[in-house]
Amino acid sequence: MDFALLRDAFWMLTFDGLALGAIYALISLGYTLVYGVLRLINFAHSEVFMIGTFGSLFATGLIGVKIEDEPLTDGKMVFTLLFALVIAMLSSAIAAVLVEFVAYRRLRKRGATKLATLISAIGVSISLVELFRIMTDSLPREFPRIMDKTFLVSYAGADIRNDKVIVIVAAGLMMVALDQFISKTRLGKGIRAVSQDENTATLMGVNINRVITVTFFAGGLMAGAAAFFYILVYENTSFKVGFFLGISAFTAAVLGGIGNLRGALFGGFVLGLMETYTSAVFGTAWKAVISFIILVLVLLIKPTGLFGESITQARV
Amino acid sequence: MKKIISLAAAGALVLGVSVSVAPAANAACSGKLKIAYQGPLTGPEAALGINELNGVKFALKKFLAANKGANVDPVVYEVDDQGDPAVAGPIAPKVAAEECVVALVGPAYSGASKVSLPVYLSAGLPIITPSATNPTLGEFGKSIFHRAVLTDDYQGPAAARLIVSKNKKATVFLVNDASDYAVGLQKTVDISLGSRVVGKDVTPNGTTDFSATIAKIKKSKATAVFYSGYFSQAAVFVKQLRDSGSKITFVSGDGTLDNQFVKLARKAAEGVLLTAPAIPFEAASPKLAAEMVKAGWTPGVYTTESYDAANFFFDAIKAGNTDRASINKYVSTKSHKGLSKTLKFDKDGEVAGADVNGFIVKNGKLVLLGAIK
């Protein structure tokens, strides 16, 4: 155990943990949204994220940015960043909607059990992973450096790097936007209504299929944003990238209280920080162990997660 | 429904019988002789298996082109064990029962080898593994076991020598990815370096964020970091290390020796030192490598070794050996001048007179430094 390291490098670790947590938080929103509406863990969500990473790769290729290029500057850099972000978000969102359409909708209409839907979700997840594995020859893909990575300031031993600042700030903005969408707009109200009581919502004239599509779309958008930020910081992806991040994000969602938007947010950041701190103190191999012990302890005391279970509480 | 069940039962019976009566020598092969390749062809480890399978396929293509008149016509029989002992267990008896499979290149991984080799031993099927480096494998395969690379016992000390030769006062931080291979390799490096080791961390395969490990390395004031693991993780790690402003010497083993590593890490890969009992296809023969790429197969780590292994078997077939026993006798006693080294197996099936090579990444290329003395 190395508590001295935690003390000496506390702010550096905190900053790195927040950047990682921001990505977890964005992915976990998708799990939580779908759970809130369908009471289903969408196990294919990790692959929706994976598709987003390939979407950003595709976007930079479309603009003609090459792997060996020097980092871009000025207007071209800003444009490339935004373009890749939008394409990543759209590809993930479309993938999420398609997954729902192909794997869940028919089952739902026929009144299949939750278990059947769950297996269908796992099946879709495996199919997508294998599809991308075959398409990429099982090889990881590198990503061009769009933006030069520089240190903005150094505070108490923490080197604050520009790309991670962008990730933390932009992720925060996305979450505020989603929160506003759910609590203020008509569609958002529809989502909340279905989440509270599906039958009553239908009777009140809410188009349930449309609500579900929007839910998957919104979750996909967030996963796509997470995918782009992941690419921006780590600059690589592979067919299996979704698995590890997906598990972490799912954990974050449960930690915060699955079905609860702000819970997912909070869970993401807490998990990112926790993983980074425990890696420093106990060694990286222990981070998952410690994280899950903390998760179990939290659930023992508060079985619905830190923020409780319902999406409707997101207004608070 | 009943019919399906009885059909399945009959199928199982046939399979079971054919396994139990699998002949020691394949007298009954009617049709083309088959050279099997066994390794991970799907799943997360598939990259390595595909590298090796490509080597075998390319060797076959060259063999067929050079022996148009010869009365032999072998084909490649692909065996996908996903690098996983649990998958390899049930597959091995089926391979052994395939009468036309007369030789096998692989298994690629040590774990899968341990469960497969006893089955091949009882079926008399000769194997040459291009990449399973666990030192104990000979005990499992006995007379049919041959290995075209040096074991982990050689690589670790060589890596330690390489690090010290570059900096007499080197202090080293060790990181491994928790796989069998990585833990074993790190152990031999650790022993060889002794008191030079100033810190350790384990980053399981799939780790995306190395922030904490990097903080530890910086605090340890080590002059070099040895990463024991595979190329995709190594690339992510070295990139984050460089992005954090660290200029520490980065050293890794054969799991990282892959052009993909350079491609993924790009500038961060510059100056990285690597060790391997293997030699990249491009370094062994630039001409053949270009020909291979043109034919549609990308060479990677261990392509050379599996190309050599396959060619040794083709030598045996060309010399008129068409059954398992005679092919086994041929590869056990004769030698083959391959691209990587001359394959000449001792009584334990281990290759003699081979070196561990050192490599450095320079201007985006893997440059062979030569054998590490």
Describe the 3D structure.
The complex is a heterodimer of chains A (316) and B (373). By secondary structure, chain A is mostly helical. Helix content of chain A is 73%, strand content 4%. Chain A has a two-stranded antiparallel sheet with strand order 1-4. A two-stranded antiparallel ribbon of chain A has the order 2-3. In chain A, strand 2 (151-155) and strand 3 form a beta hairpin. In chain A, helix 6 packs across helix 7 (186-196), helix 6 (162-184) packs antiparallel against helix 9 (208-234) and helix 7 (186-196) packs across helix 9 (208-234). Chain A is globular and about 60 Å long. The model of chain A has no long low-confidence stretch (mean pLDDT 89). Chain B has 373 residues and is of the alpha/beta class. In chain B, 45% of the residues lie in helices and 17% in strands. Chain B has helices at 2-20, 46-66, 85-97, 110-123, 138-141, 152-166, 180-193, 211-220, 231-243, 259-265, 281-284, 286-294, 303-318, 324-333; strands at residues 34-39, 75-80, 101-105, 127-129, 145-147, 172-176, 197-202, 224-228, 249-252, 273-276, 336-337, 342-343, 357-362, 365-371. In chain B, strands 7-6-8-9-10-13-14 form a seven-stranded mixed beta sheet, sandwiched between helices. A five-stranded parallel beta sheet of chain B has the order 2-1-3-4-5, sandwiched between helices. Chain B has a two-stranded antiparallel ribbon with strand order 11-12. The longest helix of chain B has 21 residues, at 46-66. Chain A binds chain B through residues 2, 5, 8-9, 12-13, 16-17, 20, 67-68, 130, 133, 137-140, 142, 149, 151, 159, 161, 230, 234-236, 238, 240-241, 243-245, 275-277, 279-280, 283-285, 287-288, and chain B through 42-44, 46-47, 50, 178, 200-204, 206-213, 215-216, 218-219, 232, 235-236, 239-240, 243-245, 260, 263-264, 266, 298.
Short characterization:
The complex is a heterodimer of chains A (316) and B (373). Chain A has 316 residues and is mostly helical. Chain A has helices at residues 3-8, 10-38, 45-63, 74-109, 114-135, 162-184, 186-196, 198-203, 208-234, 241-256, 261-282, 287-301; strands at residues 141-142, 151-155, 158-161, 236-237.
